[in-house]
Write the structure tokens for this entry.
Amino acid sequence: EVQLVESGGGLVQPGGSLRLSCTASGFTFSDYYMDWVRQAPGKGLEWVGRSRNKRDSYISEHAASVRGRFTISRDESQNSFYLQMNTLRIEDTAVYYCARASVGRHHDYWGPGTLVTVSS
Amino acid sequence: DFVMTQSPLSLPVTPGESASISCRSSQSLLHSNGNNYLNWYLQKPGQSPQLLIYLGSNRASGVPDRFSGSGSGTDFTLKISRVEAEDVGVYYCMQALQTAFIFGQGTRLEIK
């Protein structure tokens, strides 16, 4: 059974840093692209970034809104996927979901999400 | 940049009736390989999003055949026949032709 579980969310002050983790199980992690998607309170979904799979050299891509502040990485030995968030802003407050992306570029499995609150 | 526009934004439906949601992209989502890179997701209250339709018209595993997707290029439709109470939630379309993926604003389906 495919499972994705995020962790690492919490309350952080503006300008601070936080590292989110997503632990995957039930599938061959290195075969898949992995994405981060976020949802601000009461708002819609926003794609944050992705890590490509092993075949595509684990290249990471980031949305313009987070580029230069957020960094995506993964650790195949831990079946884990990370989002390092620096210089956090109030508008980064959201539930952050990790999602598996299949060949057709669709997100077929999602984690339950972890809440990040940026506030003083 | 892509802009994804959904309509309506709110959709009250009587159980047993059908419902349709439109999604329009500012640019064509038709790839040279013949696929339309348009996905539909449903986010039920208090839950993570779930995949309904991918590549415009392919139902995801476990999705009831009451859900169907159609369209090509810039105009797409999600149709739900025989709406049930469990279909309540917010429906999102998403362009997957180019990273960064862009979601529509969401359409909230409620039961009358």
